[in-house]
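Ops channel
N.P.: pipeline sanity check, posting one input/output pair.
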């Protein structure tokens, strides 16, 4: 499972889900350096997380307005420019400030109203002679604020703003001391499930799992900092056809398998490859492995013990990685949902959604030719069965 799937629900509903699944790709590659020094970069770390505060019509209580905007830098600037725009073009009614981040070359933020205003007021006997003049007026009419270090006008009236580093330092210090509740909007959810990392038992973790682990842990930390109750879930691949193959191979190599130590079994990745090669080349072994899956899913004690032994070897190696990264998760693998699958299938059957097809039990979906297999022809379950139970 490598990619985020986000589902937000109201507080009264079940927990929100942030799931890194195996079926899609997360188009996210932005990173923020811990050594960032640019004012715009530093403030974006804070302001991107917040929504614009509700606008107020008052132009005389700037301190109150900034309190309403709290941690949102862009919104605080919008309040200042709202006052300036009212003074600059008093006959144009309420004008929404167009505030955007700009490159470090020009400043930290930019007001882009001048050109649009000029197109409205030219020919109306205005005192201005073009967008640059409108921009100069917007700049000159800005209320004094400790958050602004300097302003300049560039091109066709763009008003560039350089933020005060002293103000930023004091603001961030205040945020950290007073806590998030004093400056950020309350998140819309009380509890969230973050499903991440999710490696496969008996296989090495690869860079995709590392990516998922880091992004998932970051999301979890942000939510926890925002006072959300976070359930960190590690949906490991600890169930399925591969375990029949691994268990049968374990029985062959170690008839008294419970006496086999991790050292005796050796590299579990090599053990997996050897069992897969045997599975692909030996039809009799393949048949035994397939039956082993059914017996495992049926709860036979011998197969459950062998499965648990294999899982524990992998789990030990995974924990070394998590410990090194400082990441903590609660394992809820595919096997966790196995006891719930029969009840889910029964419920779907009673609703008339499950049908027999070529010995398997499937769900036909309108408009899709290939059905969803929920019980295989040999009686075993698959990913779809597990996912339905998890949902």
């Amino acid at each position: 499972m490598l990619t985020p799937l986000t589902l937000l629900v109201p507080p009264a509903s079940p927990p929100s889900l942030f799931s890194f699944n195996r079926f899609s790709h997360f188009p996210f590659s932005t990173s923020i350096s811990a050594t960032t020094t640019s004012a715009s970069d530093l403030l974006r770390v804070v302001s991107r997380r917040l929504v614009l505060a509700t606008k107020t019509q008052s132009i005389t209580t700037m301190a109150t307005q900034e309190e309403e905007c709290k941690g949102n830098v862009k919104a605080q600037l919008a309040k200042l420019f709202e006052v300036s725009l009212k003074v600059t073009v008093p006959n144009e009614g309420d004008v929404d400030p167009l505030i955007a981040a700009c490159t470090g070359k020009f400043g930290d933020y930019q007001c882009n109203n001048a050109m649009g205003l000029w197109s409205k007021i030219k020919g109306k006997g205005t005192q201005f002679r073009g967008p640059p003049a409108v921009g100069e007026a917007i700049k000159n009419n800005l209320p004094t604020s400790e958050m602004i270090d300097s302003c300049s006008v560039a091109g066709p009236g763009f008003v560039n703003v350089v933020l005060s580093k002293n103000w930023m330092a004091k603001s961030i210090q205040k945020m950290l001391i007073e806590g998030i509740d004093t400056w950020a909007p309350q998140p819309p959810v009380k509890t969230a499930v973050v499903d991440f990392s999710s490696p496969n038992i008996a296989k090495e973790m690869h860079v995709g799992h590392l990516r998922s682990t880091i992004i998932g842990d970051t999301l979890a930390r942000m939510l926890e900092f925002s006072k959300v109750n976070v359930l960190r879930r590690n949906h490991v691949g600890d169930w399925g056809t591969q375990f029949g193959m691994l268990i049968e191979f374990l029985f062959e190599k170690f008839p008294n398998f419970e006496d086999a130590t991790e050292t005796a079994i050796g590299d579990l990745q090599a053990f997996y490859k050897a069992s897969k090669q045997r599975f692909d080349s030996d039809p009799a072994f393949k048949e035994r492995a397939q039956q082993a899956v059914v017996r495992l899913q049926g709860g036979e004690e011998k197969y459950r013990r062998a499965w648990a032994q294999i899982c524990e070897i992998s789990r030990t190696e995974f924990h070394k990685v998590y410990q090194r990264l400082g990441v903590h998760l609660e394992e809820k693998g595919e096997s966790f949902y196995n006891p719930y699958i029969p009840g889910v299938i029964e419920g779907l059957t009673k609703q008339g959604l499950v049908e027999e097809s070529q010995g398997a039990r499937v769900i036909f979906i309108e408009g899709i030719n290939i059905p969803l297999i929920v019980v295989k022809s040999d009686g075993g379950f698959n990913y779809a069965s597990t996912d339905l139970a998890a949902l």
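N.P.: looks fine end to end. Residues 62-167 form a domain with the Gyrase A; domain 2 fold (CATH 3.30.1360.70).
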